[in-house]
Specification:
By secondary structure, the protein is an alpha+beta fold. Helices cover 30% and strands 30% of the residues. It is built from 2 helices and 8 strands. Strands 1, 2, 3, 4, 5, 6, 7 and 8 form an 8-stranded antiparallel beta sheet that branches. The longest helix has 31 residues.
Length: 145
């Protein structure tokens, strides 16, 4: 009959192995999602809800893509085309609206055609988003008169 000490060692070893697997998976997922593009932490809130969902946004060539913070999926949950995305002026989140993992974040109202949503971004991330939206890669919309 195994002793309590051996059982405890097995449980602790299993938990440590599980923690290593989770951390490694998270690291590799983040690296794969970034693929050399700019990636930053942000909050997403759909209209009519008070709940912020934390995630990662990636500034792609033609679209802004939002990924959930946790999980194993490497596909974006939301995708907004650059030419349809409209970004409004940011408003500082204060009091009960503030997000603990995003201190000093600003609320950025956005629309994608008819659908509206809000992003919570810290100062440098908002600047990057605004710059990304205003700057197009070479050859983008070259047929526009």
């Amino acid at each position: 009959m195994p002793s309590v000490l051996v059982s405890t060692e097995i449980v602790i070893g299993t938990l440590l192995a599980l923690a290593v697997v989770i951390l490694t998976t998270t690291y590799l997922r983040r690296r794969y999602i970034a693929r050399g593009l700019q990636l930053t932490l942000c909050g997403l809130r759909q209209p009519g809800t008070a709940r912020w969902r934390l995630g990662l946004i990636r500034f792609g060539d033609n679209a802004l893509e939002w990924f959930t913070l946790g999980g194993v999926s490497v596909r974006p949950k939301r995708r907004w085309a650059r030419q349809r995305l409209q970004i409004e002026a940011p408003v500082l989140l204060t009091g009960t609206e503030s997000i603990p993992l995003l201190p000093d974040a600003s609320l950025v109202p956005c629309t994608d055609g008819d659908a509206g949503f809000e992003l919570a971004l810290q100062g440098p991330a908002y600047t990057a988003l605004r710059s990304w939206q205003e700057a197009a890669p070479p050859g983008y919309n070259v047929n526009v008169a």
